[in-house]
Specification:
The complex is a heterodimer. Chain A is mainly beta. Chain A is built from no helices and eleven strands. In chain A, the strands form two sheets. In chain A, strands 2, 4, 5, 6, 9, 10 and 11 form a seven-stranded mixed beta sheet that branches. Chain A has a four-stranded antiparallel beta sheet with strand order 1-3-8-7, with no helix packed on it. In chain A, 38% of the residues are buried. Chain B has no helices and eleven strands. Chain B has strands spanning 4-6, 11-14, 19-25, 32-38, 45-50, 54-58, 61-66, 71-76, 85-92, 102-103, 107-112. The chains are: A mainly beta, B mainly beta. Chain A binds chain B through residues 4, 33, 35, 42-45, 48, 50, 55-56, 58, 90, 92, 96-107, and chain B through 32, 34, 36, 42-46, 49, 51, 88, 90, 92, 94-106.
Chain lengths: 113, 113
Amino acid sequence: KAGVTQTPRYLIKTRGQQVTLSCSPISGHRSVSWYQQTPGQGLQFLFEYFSETQRNKGNFPGRFSGRQFSNSRSEMNVSTLELGDSALYLCASSLAGESYEQYFGPGTRLTVT
Amino acid sequence: QKEVEQDPGPLSVPEGAIVSLNCTYSNSAFQYFMWYRQYSRKGPELLMYTYSSGNKEDGRFTAQVDKSSKYISLFIRDSQPSDSATYLCAITNYGGSQGNLIFGKGTKLSVKP
């Protein structure tokens, strides 16, 4: 069974631009969560989607948003990029939202200049 | 006080050594305890999760939870150079629909041949 896939793997953007990242969960998984990983803050939860609905949200500004499609694929968007948004963005999927059994993708490395 | 505390290391051991990795957490409501392994430039890989106090073994890996002390541990027996990675503990206060993972900052382990 294929794992979680994320595209693109690397991205360089300029401050003020916006970016969209994509995540395809493991086949059959209906829950997708997004995390931001930085050296200073570690892994931090952004939001979780289940059956196209956002069920849970972390403590990030409204510039961070996401959505989930009927095939469970998910996208996250960051508008008005700031230098501090440079990070590894990770997507994780689980079968039906079991937070204790999430499987991560390889991540998208975003660099904001 | 942070919800999860983990010594960042780095930790360097000779091949074959027993490795002990530890985390403490602050909120007794947390019910599930996970260990992830993350190789450089990869996403975190779920090693194991536990629900209750006690030990859970999987091959060379043993996870231990002491809820009374709010202390979780991962032991690696007969460590191998391929175990060199960053190990992240994670906790969640719910299974099912209401949880998100809260991570420690990770401990970087190096196993020398």
